[in-house]
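Exercise: predict the fold of this chain.
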Amino acid sequence: MIARPPAAARIAVAALVLVAVVPGCSRIVVLHDPLTAPEHNDLGVAYEAQGRLDLAAREYRRALRLDPRFGRARLNLGNVEAATGRWARAEREYRRALLDLPGDPDPPNNLAVALVRGGRDLGEAEAHALRAVTLAAGRDSLYRATLDEVRAARLRRLPP
């Protein structure tokens, strides 16, 4: 009778074979995303701070897939679109952020900027900038600067 190695030895050999063969022909598949929407958003903020806007946008979109009403991720995605000059896309994200962050001055402020820089309706831009100033109540210097930018753009568009 031939002696068989103990079970532990057979398992160890099988594991070694798998380790030797599998790396060249397999991929790790994650079936469950371990990060929450806020964690994806935070990762996006970190990528954005490093100037890696493509990765930041990917993380903001992942956050929004997990929580479509996560206004901060929507606002951040709009900021990435604006930073790359895609004003129509930024405008779309800011409009949706308005619904999810109704008391936050950032969505109307950023929408006003997108409307001005995208060459859109300056009357609407001014209304959003005024709303941002109102919502900011006392901490409004950034929002007043946007309102000034909108009003200057309106003056430039007036016929002589």
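Check your answer against the key: DSSP finds eight helices and no strands in the chain.
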